[in-house]
Structures are given as C-alpha cells and as structure tokens.
Amino acid sequence: MESSAAPGGLHPADDPARGASGQQDAAGPPAQTPCGLGASLCFAAAEDEAPRARAVASATPPSRRGVVDTQRELGAGAARAEEGPEAPEEERASRPEERTPSPEEASASRAESPSSPEEASASRAESPSSPEEASASRAELEPRGEETPSPEEELEPAPPAAPGLALALGEPDLVLEVAGRRLRAHKAVLAARSDYFRARASRDVLRVRGVGPAALRLLLADAYGGRMAGVRPDNVAEVVAGARRLQLPGAARRATEAVAPQLSPDNCAAVLGAAKRRRLAELRDAAYRFMSDHYLEVLRRPAVFGRLSGAERELLLRRRLRAGRACLLAAALAPAAGARAGGAAGAAGARGEAAALYRFCAAAGAWRALAPLPEGAPARGCGLAVLHNYLFVAGGVAPAGPSDRVFCYNPATGRWSAARPLRQARSQLRLLALDGHLYAVGGECQLGVERYDPRADRWAAVAPLPRGAFAVDPAAAVCNGELYVSGGSLFGRLLKYDPRRDEWQECPGGGGRGRAAGLVGLGGFLYRFELGGARGDAQGAGALSVCRYHCAARRWSPGTARLRPPGPPRPFRCAALDGAVYCVSRAGTWRFVPAADGEPGQDAGPGGHFEPEPLGAPLDVRGVLVPFVLRLPDSSDPDPDPDRDLDPQAEA
Fold first, then answer.
1. The domain 263-323 is classified under which CATH number: 3.90.660, 1.20.120, 1.10.12, 1.25.40?
2. What is the pLDDT of residues 519-571, one digit of tens each?
3. Digit-coded pLDDT (tens) for 586-606
4. Among 414, 426, 416, which residue's Cα sits nearest to residue 450?
5. pTM
6. CA separation (Å) from 525 to 489, 554, 603, 607?
7. Does 152-248 carry CATH code 2.60.40.1120?
C-alpha cells in the first residue's frame, strides 16, 4: 500500500490541542510541512550533523521515522561520495599527529616573544598591514627546525674578523634569517657578546625578528670588529633598537657615539622624535645634549624649538647652565689710549692685536689662553656680556669708526659665530644680560638703549637714557632684576632701568671721588669699586676702595676695605663668582669677600675685605682685562680643581 505522505514532506508532530488520541481532523487530510533548511531535517551530509539528526528522528513518531532515516542516510552517502573512499585503518594510523612542543621548545618560544612594552610596541609597528603581507608573514613563521640552507639559496658571508681570530673561528656555523635574507655568522662570536645568542647557541638556523637586515649587518660588523661604521641619523634609531633587542649594550652605546658628531640643527629633531617613539634613553639623551650644546641655533629654529614641550625647553637650558664647571675668564682688549680710530693705538686695537680670551686655572694659579677673538671683532671699546652661557661681544672701535657687529662664543663647541648687528654702531658701551635678553647701554654720543632677543635674533629700541646722561665707558651691573649704570662720564650718578616699566630712574648718588673701576651686583647689594682717591689724597692714590649700595633701601654705605696693588696704578675690572668678587688687572687678581650680614637691609661693618695675597701671577698682556664667568666643559680644563666646581649638582 502506498504511503499517503508526499515525497520531500513530513507530517507534523501530534498537536496536544487535537486531543490525546492523536486522531486526524475529519475536515480533511493533514497539512504537510515542506522539507527545507528551516525545518533542520535536511542535511548536507556532514558527519557532525548525524547526532542532531538522530535526536530529531527520535522525537518523530514511529510512523514517520522512515522518512527521516531515509533522508539522513541519503545525505551522508552523498557526503562520503564527495570525500572519496575511506582510507584503510593502517593508513589512518600512519598519518602524523600534531606533536605537543616540549618544555624546552616552549621556553625558547617564550624567550623570543617581546619582553618589554618597547619590544611589544616595535612588534606591533612591524605587523603586516595587508592580506598579502599577512600571508607572507605566516609563511615565514612556519616552523622549519634546524634545516641546512640549500645550495640554491644565496647566503651572505660572515663579517670579516681579525686575522688571528678568523683562523680560530673556522667556518661559520650559524645562519641568521631576517626578512627573507640569510646571513652567516659564528656562534662563538655572538654568544660571547650577547645573552640573546648565548641562550640560543644550540640552533644552527635562527630566525631574528624585530630587526631589519641593514641594522643586523651593522650589528654583526660591530660584534666582529668592535667598530660601528655606517650609522647615520636616519638609521641610528633602528640600530640602537636592534642592539637592545639582541642584548648588545656595547653596540647601542657605540652607535649613539658614532652618530653624535653627525647631528645638526636640521636632523636633531627627527632623531629625538625617533628616540622618544622607541623609548631609547641613550639616543634621546644624545639629542638633548646636542640641543643644549647648540642652544641658540635650536632656539632660533621654530621647526625644532616649536616642537619641544615646555618641560623640554627648560631641560635644555638647565642642562646648559649646569654643564661643566664655572670658571673665571678675562678678555684682553686693546688699550684705551688713542681712542680715535685714526690714532696708531686705535689702528692697532682695531686690527685686534693681542686680543684673546684667557681662563684662570686655580690649581696652577695662572692664566692660560683659551681662544682668540674672531676676525673682524673690534678689540677696543667693545661691550661683553654672558647670556645662556654664551659670551657676546658687541660694538667697538673699527678702522672706519664705531662698529655695529656682534659676535657670540660658544664654550661647548669652542667656536665663534656672528649675530644680528646693532641698530646703531657704538663704542665704549656696556653690554648686560637681564631676563633672557641683552641690553646695549651707552657709548660715545649715545643716549639710545637697545635690547636683543636671542630667539628672534633681533635688536629693538627701548627707553633711552635720561637727557644729558651720556654714559661713555660706564660701569654697569644687574641686581634684583633691574639694571644699574654708574661711573664713566656719569661720575657718581647712579641710574636704574626697570624692564617691566621700560623706564630709567635716578637713584641716590654715592661713592667716593675716585674713578669707578667696576660695579657688581651681589646678594641684593651693589658694590662699587673705585681706583684712586681724591685729589691731594696721597694715601689713597692708586688704591682700590669699595663702597656698597643697598638696592631695596636705596642707601649707600661707605666701606673701609682698601687694597693697594704693587706697582703703578692699573685699570681694574670686576666679576662675581661663587659669592665673591674678583678684581682683575694686569698687575694681578685679587679676591674681595663681602661681609656676611644677618639681614640684607642692615649695613654692618666695612662690608667686606680683600684677601691679602693675589691669586696668581699677573697676565703679561697689553691693554685692559675684562673678567667674566663661563661654564666650560670638563675636557677643556687641563688642571681640574674640584674646589672651583660651583654647582656640582647633576641634571635631575
């Protein structure tokens, strides 16, 4: 008897609503459910679907299970036909099974994984960005074991070693695979210099990750010869990062040292950026050191200085002002006699004869030459000042008259460079540094004052001197953030410039009747050093006396400290260093120690004293000695004296 069920259809399960008897509705034949994927009873002949099919079949009434079983068997048969005949049991047993790695292999695999955030970041940066690169990367990461390269594959030879070492090493016994390249090397050489290679000494073929082929060649050459050649600013970050990854600390240091002479204001920002991205501390410090040593060049480049943060800018200046040791220096300028350029002395001074910088070596107690003045810098009537540990020389008497040229000396490099000229040529001026700017004050027939902005490399006019106050060859100093001028053609007058208000003020005059030899600001006081006494004062003739001015109280106090240098009277100039004032002349160098007052506003005693003996032999030069203070690199000190290191604190 034929079944009433249509082909490809199933009777629905008994509906409880129809009653427990399960009888069909008398209204007509039962509705059929079409066979499809939605019914979950037609299978694509997959073996993993069989359990589910059996579960469905078991839930089907017995009268309808034949259809379910038939459909499942037909689907499974079709799947076996597509897969082909089943392999024999022996063949299935001979198939290789997936091998579980040994503990040693698992440990080596973990050792090759990135062990630091820097390495993890570098690994992410080197991950493929396209499906083709991902496929190639998976192909390269397939385990090969310790296979020997075939003759068809080209192997790069090992770097050359020393003649004696080459005979002892013999043939290379290691193949390094990096980015599809194969380089030969000796296990003994690499294991002796790196823990990374020492831990993998049992391998004959080693795949190196995270290092490019070019960087690996440079590192191998360094491992064999101990010399880092071929390092440039554009690849130094990759080489240093590779040295850190392969645990070659000596190579990282040598790569940094090799690139340091190649840094310039044009590439230092790129090197610093690469070092910060890869977190390479030694390379970052090298970039900071270059920027600090060439601070003005970096300061004047918006593309470089503008990319630095505020903390980095402060760091560069702080490093520059703390590097090396503070030293007493003096510029030997041409004599002041024959002030007019047409005189013989003026012509000699304009040519710069005997014009040079000297440094005082405390250990030897003598002055020694440091550097000559640059060609074209007038050696007489110029102004000197120190800003950001640079020595600036401005103005002076040139063969054709007053000069407007400005030169700058960098003690970190020992080189002179030219800066923006003055707006007005002037001679017999004073140059002072205040709040990161330079001020050119006075000069012959000059009332104007100019201010120099080192970042913009530009001079600008500020408030001029009061009418009638021509300051020719005055003494000047900075104290409590204000600028003071006295002496010279001003005699006993004291003028003060307030940069916040951009105005000059008249202060109470004071001092003796002698000629001002120097004005120094120290500890809230101005110290005025005068050479010679009043007319008719035989006792004070040729003596050096001191008087003191309290800047906040606006009061002078006469001092009784007096020094009589040997020989005829000679002009003095003064500079402050380490809480003392050094008075320098061709006759010798004397040290003045101010009194240690309990309160700055109370004037007690004479205000200080001179040490009886000069510090060193006199400097045998012609002209005037103008002292100043610079921080010089330790390498430039032939006779280091630890007592002269005034700020030994290292950079925090």
1. 1.25.40
2. 999 999 999 888 775 444 555 566 788 889 999 999 988 776 778 777 666 77
3. 888 899 999 876 444 444 445
4. 426
5. 0.71
6. 23, 10, 10, 10
7. no
